[in-house]
Amino acid sequence: MMWSAAGVETEIDLGDEGDSEDSEDQQPWKTQLATVMEEEEEEDEVSTQSDTRPLLNERDPRQINECLKVSFEDVIAEPEAVRSGDRVWIWSHALFEVSRVWFYRIITALLAVPVSVIAGILFAVLSCLHIWLFSPCVKVIFINTGWLETLWSSVLDIIILPFFQSVAKCCRGISVQLTRQ
């Protein structure tokens, strides 16, 4: 027995049901089949882990555009009290789905490449600025202001901390009792 990708059980008859022994030495096809299936699983794992190879089946693996999963029933719904004819409802549903899919395909065919190029250039410029300008500037500031961190820590330890500790000791003796009169 083998399981296909759709989860339906498929029976393969190899004509060896009359054999009394099921050892793998007498049935080399079992080991070959297991080896092929393991290799296919490894290839599937590698293809899903690769960032450079586009995944054709899973185009939103991080569920970024979860809000765009819209069906006809999410947009148009008729209550029981007000209903159109069944044919109108069926044709409306069909036209909604067809127009949504085809207009999306047409618009993406026109805009996908230019928008991808612009987004690529934008992210390249931002990455370059971040790597070569912002990060070094922040490091220079941190290096040159290390003495401020030491100074601020000393001010907190010498002045601020003792002041609030003494205020806390003064307020420790205060107690409030509520009585009902």
UniProtKB/TrEMBL annotation:
GO terms for cellular component: caveola; focal adhesion; Golgi membrane; sarcolemma
Biased composition (Acidic residues): 10-25, 37-46
GO BP terms in the entry: caveola assembly; cell differentiation; regulation of cytosolic calcium ion concentration
Membrane-protein topology: Peripheral membrane protein
Keyword terms: Cell membrane, Golgi apparatus, Membrane, Transmembrane, Transmembrane helix
Region (Disordered): 1-56
Protein's UniProt name: Caveolin
